[in-house]
Amino acid sequence: MTYEYLIAGLEDLREGQPMKLPYDSLLSLLEEQMTPADFRLVKLLRRKNDDPVILSLMEDDAVQDRFRETSLTEDDFRTQLLYEQGMHCRNRFVRAWFEFNLNLNNVMAAAVCQKHGYNPEKVIVGDNEVAQLLRKGGVAKNANLAAVLSELKDIVAVSEIQNLLDRERHIDALRWLWIDEYTRFSYFRVDNVLAYFLQASILHRWDDLTREQGERIFRQLLADMKKDVKF
After folding, report:
1. Separation of alpha carbons 96 and 191, rounded Å
2. pTM of this prediction?
3. What's the average model confidence in pLDDT over 31-45?
C-alpha cells in the first residue's frame, strides 16, 4: 500500500526544529491512516527492551539457556533480543534500521572499552558481522571493520565527544542522516511513513529540553550507569 495522501498532509520536519503536531497526535493519525499490519511496524520501532513481549521471551527456558551462555547483563541481553526481533522483521527498512542502531551502539560501547582497557565481549550485543569483528579486534585500526561499516569513522568521532549532551545530539544527527539516505529514492511507501515517524521521534526526544536540563539529566544517567555497569 502507498501513502501519498498521508505523506502529503504531514508537515515538513527539520532537524533541530520542534514539530507543530503533538507527538501523541501523530501516533493517533498514523494508527488511523495506516493498515493494521503497517502500524505494527510503528509499534515495533517504539518497542523497548522492557516491553512485555521481550520480558515474556525471557521466561522461555531456551532463551534463559542462551542468556546463561553469554557474559551480558540481563538488560543487555534483553536489548539483544529486541535487536533480533527488529532484524527479523519482514520490512527491509525496519531490519536495516535495527541493524544500524545495533552497529552504532556496539561501536560506541567498544570504543569506551578500548579507551579504558575493558573487555568488549561483556558489552557487545548481537552476532552480526560487525559485532563479531568488534569482539575480535576492537575499533582502532580494524581494517575489516572499516570495510563492512561505512559509518565507522563518523561513529568513532562521535564517541570521542566529551560532553554527554552534545554526544547524544550528534548520535541523533547520525540517525537522522541515515534515515534521509536510506529513503532518498523511496516515494510514498510505508518506508517513508516509518522514516517520518522516526525523525519525529528524534525531535520529540529533544522537545523543551534546554542545555541545562539536558546536562542535569545526563549527569544523573551517568551516576546511575556507574552504579549498574559491570565490566
Report:
1. 11
2. 0.88
3. 97
